[in-house]
Each structure stands twice: as structure tokens, then as C-alpha cells.
Amino acid sequence: MDRVTRPDTATKPAADVSAMFDEVSPRYDLINDVLTAGNDRLWRIATTRAVAPRKGMRILDLAAGTGTSSAALAAHGAHVVAADFSEGMLEEGRRRHAGNPLIEFVHADATDLPFADDSFDAATISYGLRNVSDPRRALAEMARVVKPGGRVVIAEFSTPPSALVRRPYAFYGKHVLPRIAGAINRDAAAAYHYLNESIEAWPDQAELARWMRGAGFERVAHRNLTFGIVALHRGFVGRRAPEPAKTEPAKDDAAKAVAGKPAAEPVAEPGPAAPKSQPDSQSKSASQPKPKSKSASKPKPKPKPKSASQPKSAETAEKSVAKQPAAKQSAAPKSTGSKPASKRPEAKPAASQQPATGSESGDVK
Ligand SMILES: C[S@@+](CC[C@H](N)C(=O)[O-])C[C@H]1O[C@@H](n2cnc3c(N)ncnc32)[C@H](O)[C@@H]1O
Known about the structure:
Blueprint: H1 14-24, H2 28-35, H3 39-51, E1 58-62, H4 68-74, E2 79-84, H5 87-96, E3 103-107, E4 120-126, H6 135-145, E5 146-157, H7 163-184, H8 189-201, H9 205-214, E6 217-225, E7 230-237, H10 251-258, H11 284-287
Parallel strand pairs: 1-2, 1-4, 2-3, 4-5
Antiparallel strand pairs: 5-7, 6-7
The chain binds S-adenosylmethionine (SAM).
S-adenosylmethionine binds near residues 63, 64, 68, 127 and 128.
């Protein structure tokens, strides 16, 4: 009999999802290898290349589980914060990677990250977003904690475009996968029924790309792996709106500056402030920013590069993407600060996205 929690696929209650992963954590990676016939290793290589980790970078690996994805990033010299809300997965990860000073395991909920704005050079989430109760909120949180210009890479099961692949894959997911998983860990079959249901309920590549743009990511692109069984999505966090032209501060403004507030508020990008312009978005962090305690100390807004509107739809796979230079080591490990309005998702309508092509080079690799 199954003794593993099987979360409701529609609501994915956090307690049930974390309990399920606590229970499967000891054999999680082994089952992955078997169920994917080793393809998970190839998908990880592709994901790591898309993140482009470098020495000195600080990378958030969200829903990191046992840290297998984190280790691949740390192998390139990046400092990786492996965040997850399952204590069982974190414990297994800490045990396995005890000797690796570049991986730091942190208990965190993807929908309410305990990190300061702009505290990472990049973020990634592998096979985790689908399990989050409010994935759009998690996207907004990733946009908040990654520095402007930093990239976010999502690896997730997806929808194979070809029916020739989709049908046998659906059969495998429904009938074969839970049996194999149950044979390896007889308590785990329920978890793998949930895995199949959650994949079936998960939006396709185009919809996830829309969610990413809704969360404020620019140059959103994706690439299918293994016929689209997995898709690799990536986007860049938008740069801030330009600073207004400097003028002599009036007496009132000078007094405000002395009190620790900026003499002039950064100009938000054109577009709706709140409420969100995209009806499909449910991101609460977008409309309920955390206290503005950090805004006074934030760096000055960087000018947003001018660009034409997106010439291709983001549904197009295999777009060219920029290889960003490794950003500087990030600072504050924890705060509740909020992004300026220009970096909040609602301030960046989809129409303002940058083109995915142009002078950029390379694929979502
Ligand atoms: C399928 S595992 C993926 C683990 C790892 N990224 C990998 O590639 O092997 C999904 C992970 O997402 C975590 N997770 C799900 N919802 C989460 C949330 N709201 N916050 C943090 N972690 C979450 C689970 O605890 C689990 O460890």
C-alpha cells in the first residue's frame, strides 16, 4: 500500500508537497535516473549550460531538492544557494554535499523567498516550478531577487509538440512510470501518480513563456529537450528605468535625502502600475510588494536599453540569447526589501519585451 502523501494536483498544498518530497528524498535521484533512462543527466547538462555559471557568481537554485542541480552549477565555481522547503530533501542534500563549500542549503518557500532584492546574479529551478502552489508568484520572486540583467532558467516537464511522441509518453506516464517507481520504492507509487498528474496539468511551452513575460522577464525563449518532454525556458530580469535628469534639489528634497530617502523617486517605466495588466497573472508579490525598507539604499536605476518590440513570438523555440558576463558577487543575504516599481512585473507589459534575436548569440543551451 502507498504510504506517501499524494498532493491534490489542482491546489498543491505546500504541506502535502513538502511531505511527499520528505518521504521520497532518500531514493529520489535513483528513481529519476531510472524513470528517465538517464536522460535527466543530459537535461541537467543543458540546464547548467543555459545558466552559464562562472566563478564568483552567486546563483539561486530554487526547489533544489537534494542539490544534484546545485552541484552541477557549483562545479563551475559559482556559489550556489540551494533553496527548498522540504526538510527531507535538504537533509539528504546536506549529507551528500557536506564537503562542498560552494553549496549552501537554505530552507525557503519559492513563493516568499527570504532573500533581498537583487541578491543573486542568476536563478534557476529544475522540475520544481510545477510543484509550487502559485508558480506565477514564484516567478515574480525570482525576478525580485535576481539583479537586473541576470538570467533565470527553468527546466520543466512540458508538452511534446508531436502527437507521435505525446501519445506514448502519456501512456508511459500514466501506466508505466508509477509501477517502475513503485518497484524501486514500494511506498512511492503515489508520489509518481502525482508526478504524472502534475505534468498533465502543467501548461505548455507557450503558456509558461507568457507567465515569464507576465512576471517581467525579457528576451524570454525556450528550447525543447528530448522531443519536448522537457523544455528549457530562460528570461532576463529587466533593467531599471532611467534616472530622471539631475536638478538642484529643492530644500524639501534635500531634507528628505538627509532623512535617508532618495531626493527623487525613480521613474517607473511606462505602463500600468497596479493592478496588473495581465489578467492571467496571480502573482501576489507583484501587487503586494514587501516593505520598502531597502529602496533608499538601492543602487541608482540603470538606463533601460532601447529596443524594438519583440519581432518573433516567444513560443518559438531555439531562439538566440545573449551570453551575459558574470555579474559581480552579490551582497545582502537576507532582507525584505522590494524592487522599484520598474522591476515589478506589473510595470513591464509584455509588449515592451526586447527582441530575442539581434546582436545576441547562442541558444538556450
Ligand atoms: C522534483 S524535485 C526537483 C529537485 C531538484 N531541482 C532536481 O532537479 O532534482 C521538486 C522540488 O521542489 C520542491 N518544492 C516544491 N514546492 C516548493 C516551494 N513552494 N518552495 C520550495 N521548494 C519547493 C520540493 O520540495 C522538491 O524538492
